[in-house]
Structure formats: structure tokens, C-alpha cells
Write a structure and sequence with these properties.
Blueprint: H1 3-14, H2 26-40, H3 44-57, H4 62-83, H5 115-129, H6 133-137, H7 152-164, E1 169-181, E2 185-196, E3 200-212, E4 215-223
Antiparallel strand pairs: 1-2, 2-3, 3-4
Length: 224
């Protein structure tokens, strides 16, 4: 994948705002601060991953968004330097840390989906936006149940064609809610905003997710 294509993917994923219910503060502060440390150590891709997870964990994302934008900008600067065979000198990034909020009382209900679920949704919509077919298909479980009676190979062929056909794609999701939780299987619903050079729509979608050794994967999906 070229530097330009990678940057396009980063920029589109950076636009995702996965709106969960307010979380118990610590995930956002911890993930953000780990990302700051990773960026300062030159581990920009790890910083990017952590900031994406932080955005998904808590709606207090103003500081995190700023940090994410700076990390994406630095990734872009270094990638273009490599493309031009010019070494981009490292520079210190003006990133901000966060103070954790007060601990929630014992027994307080958990708020918002599991961050690992939100990470899968970010990976799925991000791969779709970047038109990265392999990464997109990797978000689906081996026992995924294609809609409309298609078998797996026919469904994959159709998805490859539809991901690659547009010149550009942007998929944003928000208002994520877990509507059923059976431990290793959950159902989540969210608003999906799809845009491309060919078509636009906004729909409510439901995914059935299953926990696998590789993490959460999509077992079934439908539009509501």
C-alpha cells in the first residue's frame, strides 16, 4: 500500500466518532497517556491505535482528538519523506495528557460497550473506508452467515467488487449500543453513515459479534 493510500486510510479513520455512553474515566486517560508515551518514543502507529481506542472508550474526546490529529500529521510527514527517499527529522509533538476523573462508586453500572468491541468496529469501518479488502474480511468470523442466502465465497466476491468499485469511500459509525450480551456473543446496533463518489446513505445497522481467539469478529449483520 502506498504512503498516499495509507494516509487516506488514517485520515478517514481519524474522522470516526464512536459515540458510547459515558465510561468510567480511567480507560480514556490511561489509553491517551499510553499513546503520548508511545508517540514520544517514536512508536507512532502504536500511538495511533491507542488514541483510536481511547476515542471509542469515552465521549470526552476533545483532547484525544487533538492528539490523534497531531499523530496522523506526523505519520503523514514521515511517510511522505520515505516516499521521496528523504529522512524526516523526528520532532517533538505537542500532545496533552489527561487526569483521570474520580473513581465511580463501587457497584456502579458499567457504561458503554466493551472497548474491544469498539476497536473491532473502528477496524471494520476503517478498513472499509481505506478499501482494504483483506483487513475488512478479517473482521468477519469463520462461521459468518451471509445475508440473502449467499454462500461465503459468493458474498466475499460481492464485497470485494463493492469495496473496490468506488474511487473513494468514507464510513462513519456512531450511537453504538449493545442490545444483547450473552458473554461470548453480543449484538450491537449503531448508526452507519456511508459516503462514496457513487452513493450515499445513512442507516441503522445491527451486528452479531462472537468472541474468538483472535478477538471479536462479526458473525451476522443486517440493516434495521
Amino acid at each position: 500500500m502506498t504512503a498516499e493510500r495509507r494516509l487516506a486510510g488514517y485520515s478517514l479513520i481519524a474522522g470516526l466518532l464512536l459515540a458510547a455512553l459515558p465510561a468510567r474515566s480511567e480507560p480514556l486517560a490511561e489509553l491517551n497517556n499510553r499513546a503520548v508515551a508511545a508517540a514520544r518514543a517514536g512508536q507512532l502507529k502504536e500511538a495511533y491505535r491507542l488514541l483510536q481506542e481511547a476515542i471509542a472508550s469515552d465521549p470526552r474526546f476533545a483532547v484525544v482528538q487533538g492528539n490523534l490529529a497531531r499523530v496522523v500529521e506526523e505519520i503523514s510527514r514521515r511517510d511522505y519523506g520515505k516516499a521521496l527517499e528523504v529522512d524526516a527529522a523526528p520532532r517533538e509533538l505537542a500532545l496533552k495528557t489527561l487526569e483521570p476523573l474520580a473513581e465511580a462508586p463501587a457497584g456502579a453500572p458499567s457504561a458503554g460497550p466493551d472497548p474491544a468491541i469498539l476497536t473491532l468496529l473502528a477496524d471494520w469501518s476503517g478498513a472499509w473506508s481505506a478499501q482494504d479488502v483483506a483487513a475488512y474480511l478479517n473482521c468477519y468470523a469463520d462461521d459468518f452467515q451471509p445475508p440473502n442466502g449467499l454462500d461465503r465465497s459468493a458474498w466475499e466476491a460481492l464485497r470485494r467488487e463493492r469495496l473496490r468499485r468506488p474511487r473513494w469511500v468514507q464510513v462513519r459509525i456512531g450511537n453504538v449500543r449493545v442490545v444483547a450480551d450473552e458473554g461470548d456473543t453480543v449484538r450491537v446496533r449503531f448508526d452507519q453513515d456511508y459516503r462514496s463518489d457513487r452513493y450515499r446513505d445513512r442507516t441503522r445497522k445491527e451486528l452479531t459479534l462472537v468472541r474468538t481467539p483472535e478477538g471479536w469478529r462479526i458473525r451476522a449483520e443486517r440493516s434495521l
